[in-house]
Amino acid sequence: MRISFGPFAFDPQSRLLWRDGAEIALPPRVLGVLEVLIERSGDVVARQDLLDRVWKDAFVTDTSLAEAVSFLRSALGDDPQSPQYIQTVHRRGYRFLVTPTPEPVVEPGSAGGRPGSNEGQTGVRLGSDHLRSIAASGQLRSIPAPGQLRSTPASGHVGSIDELDADSAANHVDWQLVPWIAATLCAALAIATVWHAATAPAPPEPPVVRAEIRTTAGTTFDAGPRPIAISPDGRSLAWSACDAAGGRCAIYLRALDALDARTLAGTDGGHSPVFSPDGRWIAFFADGALKKIAVAGGAPSVLATAPDPGGAAWAEDGRIAFSGSAAAGLSIVNGQGGAVQALTTPRRARGELRHRDPAWLPDGRLLFTIASAPGADLPGELAAVQTPSNDIRILRNGVTRGAPTGSGYLLLATPTDLQAATFDDRALVLTGSTDAVPAPASDGAPRFAAGASALAIVRSAGDAQRIWNDGADAAPFARLSSIALSSDSRHAAGVIVENDTADIWTVDLGSNALTRLTFGGTNVSPAWSADGQRLLFSTRDAAGVFQVVSRSIVDRTSAAAATPAAPAHAFPSSTAADGRVALTVYNEGRTAIAIVSPGGAAPRILTDGPFDEAAAAFSPDGRWLALESSESGRTDVIARSATGGQRFSISTDGGRHPRWSEDGRSIYFDAGRRLMKAGFRPEEGGAVGRPEPVLDRAGERVLAVAPSGRVLVERRPPADTAVLILQWLRELRERLPLPVTSPR
User: Fold this and answer.
1) What letter does residue 53 receive in the DSSP assignment?
2) What architecture is the 3-102 domain classified under in CATH?
3) Which has the least CB within 10 A, 93, 103, 517, 726?
4) SS3 state at 590
5) Which residues pair with 402 in a beta bridge?
């Protein structure tokens, strides 16, 4: 018996839910929750009762139940703040607010006619008159003439054919009649089927459903730009999440018809998951490599080195496009493994530093983002590459990432929102206007995954707060990125991005006064002179090339002075007391360390091999450099002599952004969310003991470290929720129709 409430009908026996006659597909346990609530309509059902009934012997938490109720409310269109069907009773459970009505049972065959009649039914009845007509035509010779007697072997009954009804006649006909009866039945059935198909109303489209997806208890989505992925069939989600206690990340997998996720063993440190086209594999980055693992489980395998990951995409033909180096283009590797081939190369003459975030189009061409400034804070250009010619076409500016939907639209992430644009993937042109995609609040560029039937967007848990670890006010730093502190801890500098410009601002740490230093253009990578009187930074010229300049903070009206002999695409990171400048330079697809002497001599490249080195910092005495290096296959912190020769490993499990202590006896560096400190004694062989954590708190990220050990951190509520939107493309088409002239 079906049970009705509002426009809905529920069948407890088959566990099916309909709305206005259209079935709503829901996971079994969500339907189980609905069944229990309907059974006890009007009563408060305790959470534990629901868990015991629906999950039985499975070990789950209240989070699984909350997700099921949220999913059910979305399907019913119920508002938890003003519920019509399901009410949350604080600290007790849930109550079904309406009284369901049983529906009468309709006997098969009774619809459209009297019970027992043939009205409203589709079928063929063969009577004696019809049989006579067949016989008269000469098509049936073994039927006795009317009135002729025939005995039935089974019963011995003797009668005439006129006394037989159609069913009896069928039992007495010769085998030659069978094909004609079958043909007549088939013809009637075909006519009935065609008539039914022509007159039946079109089934309603499935509803647009929004539901919350929560990470496993005690974990949060990792802070990277690509933490979540949707399988090609839209039935599974994969995400990278980090343990709140230790900060270690891994890949999690959840089917949409299940309410709990599972960890993929062997994916420690993993992030940026990508499904294979058949949904059986997941590629991800970990330990300086691109890896893959079977969804069913097993040991991961390494496909390629990737010390500085920038996204990956898996094509239908099995190829994986990925970005693995801070100064390189896209590469291709087969999903089965093998040699890695370079696909694109940043065009230095255009000011391109890196190609990242690949996404395959249906015909095998690639979308990607051209980064024209270091770091992830600045947007780039969305481009497409046409293989095998490798011709590159620019589609749009101001984009951090683009994702095709395969249905005439592109999703475009900007530094502030998620937009949709109509797109002709054959001509590689945007064909109309754009519209913002309704998305949960995010602080910075949206973190999302898109499929043909589902869209998942990670929800920001709240506004970020910037503070000093000693509790002092850090309000002037609210909008700054790439923050650098002077060696005397009296000033700070950073970048503020607005629209397509990036300018340098300074902060007086005594008065907290925020002052603008540059006006317009792209200005990045601030670094202080040793005496704290000048600021070095890189500015992009009209040709798109970054040049290193310096400006006095005492006389702000003075013109910026170019650093002598600095190479193109160079970014300052540190200065020594004698005037030497350490630069990160983009050199033939690699980042390298270069030292510029104060006398104007040609820069000296320090990098020794085919690996990336960057972010060098002079020790207080100028004898040593602490820097990032991918020589080990992942990005680690090392210390090396500023004149060449000795090299010492500092980090033991990956590290970035090295800074020196005031006395030069310790090196601070970032390792994930943790701030680490390693002792440094070159006379004793380099690093002393294992690095120790200085700061390790969930939801906190280190922004800057003063030589005195004072730390500026960003505190952000951990993100543990994503919004899943099913049938999102139908909603998008209503708001942003495809252009009529678009050649689809």
Assistant:
1) I
2) Orthogonal Bundle (1.10)
3) 103
4) strand
5) 412
Closest CA relative to residue 101, chosen from 2, 3, 20, 1: 3
Place of tokens 């970020």: 464
- Tell me the two tokens of residue 71: 């999913």
- Around Cβ 684, how many Cβ atoms within 10 Å? 9
Per-residue pLDDT of 521-542, as tens digits, reads 889 999 999 999 999 999 988 8
Rounded Cα gap, residues 267 and 257, in angstroms: 23
Q: Which of 354, 396, 398 is nearest to 372 (CA)?
A: 354
DSSP state of 437: P
pTM of the model: 0.73
Find the range with the poorest average confidence among 51-60, 285-294, 379-388, 474-483: 51-60
Taking CA 725 as the corner, what is the angle to CA 720 and CA 730, rounded to the nearest 5 degrees?
Answer: 165
Give the long-range contacts of residues 735-742, CB within 8 A, separation 24 or more: 735/435, 736/409, 736/420, 736/422, 736/432, 736/433, 736/434, 736/435, 738/408, 738/409, 738/422, 738/431, 738/432, 739/422, 739/431, 739/432, 741/431, 742/408, 742/422, 742/424, 742/431, 742/432
Q: Return the axis-axis angle of helices 28-39 and 62-76, rounded to nearest 10°.
A: 80
The answer to whether residues 664 and 621 touch, using CB atoms and an 8 Å cutoff, is yes
What is the distance between the alpha carbons of residues 308 and 634, in angstroms, rounded to a whole number? 8
The model's pLDDT over 19-58, given as tens digits with 9 standing for 90+, comes to 888 888 888 888 999 999 999 999 999 988 888 888 876 6
User: Using CA atoms, how far apart are residues 386 and 601, in angstroms rounded to an integer?
Assistant: 42
> Shortest CA distance to 543 belongs to which of 347, 303, 274?
347
pLDDT tens per residue, range 688-729: 788 999 998 888 889 999 988 899 999 888 889 999 999 888
Domain ranges of the chain: 3-102, 209-462+720-735, 470-715
Examine domains 3-102 and 209-462+720-735 and report if their fold is the same. no
Domain 470-715 -> CATH class? mainly beta
Q: Which fold has domain 209-462+720-735?
A: Neuraminidase (2.120.10)
- CA–CA distances in Å: residue 133 to residues 261, 449, 490, 640: 69, 68, 111, 106
In the sheet with 465-468, reading across from the earlier edge strand, the strands are 465-468, 711-715, 700-705
Contact 79, 69 (CB under 8 A): no
**Identity at 107, one-letter amino acid code:** E
Contact 323, 330 (CB under 8 A): yes
In angstroms, the CA 694 to CA 417 distance is 34
